[in-house]
Amino acid sequence: MTIDQLYNIYRQYPSVQTDTRKLKSGDLFFALKGPNFNGNQFASVALEAGSAYAVVDDPGLAGTDSRIIVVDDVLTTLQQLAKHHRQQFNIPFIAITGSNGKTTTKELVHAVLSTGYKTYTTQGNLNNHIGIPLTILSVKDDAEMAVIEMGANHLGEIASYCEYTLPTHGIITNCGKAHLEGFGSIEGVRKGKGELYDYLREYGGTVFAMWDYDYLHTMSKGIATIVKYGTINTADVQGAVQQSEPFLTVSISKGVHIPIVKTQLVGAYNLPNVLVAITAGKYFNIPDEKIRASIEHYTPSNSRSQLIEKDGNKFILDAYNANPTSMRAAIENFANIQSDNKVLMLGGMAELGAESLQEHEGIINLIKQHHWKAVVLVGGDFLKLDHPYIKMVNSIEAAAWFKEQSFTDTYFLIKGSRSMQMEKVLSS
């Protein structure tokens, strides 16, 4: 079956699913394979559950049911179908990547653009080789904008996503110490994230660039259109942190007529995320007041820069992920909060390769520079280092410790890599 033929079927049944547990009647089921699963085994289950067709790559299933479509490779077919669908649109496709802040930036940009355009975006964290095609295939005919988040942990990954996303605009939030195990070094991170710029340079695209970061000046050379944001005078949209406690308030001095934006985000490190949303809104002619209102109404979720008040205490829950760059920013922001009662509960940082011990030691040294009521370091390479703080093996153990305490009128910073599941500290 050709992609054109499969696309005709998709047009009749435009809801794609890869998990039989989430199937709805009329879905197209794509039987993906992985190291620990084989979706081909669930083709009949999918059809019994109401799937219109099942796309498989097990030749042995050919002819067993007229609703089974056999292809050479299901994942490749999913990506090719997504590209074919993408090619039906002549609208801005904005790709967002970076070491930190991708999801918050995506949510803010989507919130702003949605006030003026029918805008589709990545749901949750579907930002990989499976999630991105599924996101593209969820874009309906009425779309006027699409905002696509791209995650990556090795070279070549962003370049491959661009092949079927075909972005017209791009944002690299930053290039920090994340996924060093796959990228090898900070230079590798820049090269990997820079694959988005490479694509946009080749195809005459537009980038929104944080002009405070000198490395983005170098990385963006030769790109047709560069729209700049930041705290410096050479930015097209210029802003600064006016206040960051408890929530970030941003003052704007150039580019839009919005003197103040009062967000519901915790942390001065969210300034670039807010500025790029403002910049994208201005570029696409969203009225200034709608830009301001949409950012001010945005409430973070999924353990990202959330401020939670519970039992007389305040918790900054930023536990969706962590790397040395984001961990340092979160600790430094927390240190600036005016309170004598502050507790750090930090989980280990994953995927740092050979530099992991050194990076964890650097975080411990940063912690030592400030006064805390208590510090709890959980799991990962924090367990391998000598330090004067409380050690816990995992977040369940940390939650048990927390439950035994009698904290009141205390601030907490809870952060760690996804594998640490530090949000469990608050679920007890």
What does this structure look like?
This protein is α/β, with parallel strands linked by helices and 428 residues long. It has three domains: 3-80, 3-Layer(aba) Sandwich (Udp-n-acetylmuramoylalanyl-d-glutamate--2,6- Diaminopimelate Ligase, Chain: A, domain 1), CATH 3.40.1390.10; 89-297, Mur-like, catalytic domain (UDP-N-acetylmuramoyl-L-alanine:D-glutamate ligase); 306-426, Mur ligase, C-terminal domain (Protein-Tyrosine Phosphatase, Chain A, Alpha-Beta Complex). 33% of the residues lie in helices and 21% in strands. It has helices at 3-12, 43-48, 74-86, 102-113, 131-137, 157-165, 180-183, 186-193, 195-202, 214-219, 271-283, 288-297, 324-335, 356-368, 395-404, and strands at residues 16-17, 28-30, 33-34, 37-38, 53-56, 68-70, 93-97, 119-121, 145-149, 169-172, 206-210, 225-230, 237-243, 249-254, 260-262, 306-310, 313-318, 342-347, 374-378, 390-392, 411-415. The strands form four sheets. It has a nine-stranded mixed beta sheet with strand order 8-9-7-10-11-12-13-14-15, with helices on both faces. Strands 16-17-21-18-19-20 form a six-stranded mixed beta sheet. Helix 14 links the parallel strand 18 (342-347) and strand 19. Helix 3 crosses helix 5 and helix 11 (271-283) packs antiparallel against helix 12. The termini are far apart.
